[in-house]
Amino acid sequence: MLIIVVGVNHRTAPVEVRERLSFPEHSLGNFLDRLNNYPAIEGCVIISTCNRTEIYAATRKLDEGLNAIWDFLSQKSGVDISEIKNYSYTHTLYDTIRHLFRVAAGLDSMILGETQILGQVRQAYQMACQHGSTNRVLNTLFQQAITVGKRVRSETGIDQNAVSISYAAVELAKQKFKDLSGRSVLVIGAGKMSELTARHLVANGVSGVIVSNRSYQRALKLAVQFNGRAVKFDQLYHYLAEADIVISCTAASHYVVRLKDVAGVIAARQGRPIMMIDIAVPRDIDPAAGKLPGVTLYDIDDLQQVVDQNLAQRKKAAVVAESIIEEELEQFMQWLSMQFVVPTIAALKQRGEEIKKKELHRALNRLGDISEHDRKVVSSLANSIVNQLLHVPVTQLKAYALTPEGHLYMKVLQNLFQLSIPGEEPKSFENAPGQGNVATGL
Predict the structure, then answer these.
(1) Which intervals hold domain Quinate/shikimate 5-dehydrogenase/glutamyl-tRNA reductase (predicted)?
(2) Residue 236 carries which DSSP code?
(3) What residues act catalytically?
(4) Structural domain boundaries enclosing 217
(5) For residue 206, what pLDDT band results from cuts at 50, 70 and 90?
């Protein structure tokens, strides 16, 4: 059985293609059922996020399995198969496993080491399980991929350092205040960057959110998201005395927070420190304000420096993560290789048992009336001959299964002994060379 994947991601396809090939969560179960109805597909899992769509499948026939997935994607999206092929990537067996392990570890993400993808892999697998679309091989693969993702993060800390501007602001705030629980933030500007930064701060314990924007309605809309307060733009200085953290990101062409305004609230704060983060370009906060006692001021360059340092740390962690993946990959391939040859070994032993029984029955009939002891001696001889004859092929096949040529040795053995494997089409041996009477020997 082969494991394959067909996918598109942020590197291979533009968003207009990715969105047509994506799968809404509420209907994913129906699509899993439809894909599993293709005769070539024996199990499948679909991962669909904003940056990737990947279909993992188990199949016995590579070309038919890939064609089934391409047809399925084309039927679902209305995109021509040739266009899908242009934007997609495919991996088979060994490369499929490595790819999934890297995805779960966050090494294939737009943001190196992101945490969210591991939960998305787990959710996709759980959805497939609920709809009965997986099989034993895919179950083991995805369970191991989730374990690998956890191990990489635990042993390398690849997701511990912020690599986005908004989250770098949170990291600096943590360094300043140690614990953000109970702290308050004044957000100046209601754009996307302000929203992301506020969201990260709230997720890390900040409890009070005050939003000020030139458009009071936009400030109100953002404040509602965090159960906060919206204040008019010309009143924001009155709230500087309340806030522990100030986040400013407006489109103003001049300083929004002036030196004299900050100096005026220092006395009112009674020695409480204040942290100001200026994400705007041009800057919103007069840089001279950072020299006032109790004021810590960071601008976009300071945050970018944090991001660059953290990204360098993640890249170092990624090197270690790749070695972990190779180690896990080798162990999984050993398990998978054994699964491939088990049906062939079972069929070979069954063929030996059938021949043994047939020839033993014929021999005992020819010997006529012999003692029970003699019958046991003859039976033991037959068992010993068959076991010893099959021992080397079975042992060697297990050893070769761990090599890239393992499947070739397996097929040769099947052909040599004319073995029928459950789940595979029976082979015709009418034109095979050297055909003769095989009833009396292996």
Answers:
(1) 171-306
(2) G
(3) 50
(4) 165-303
(5) very high
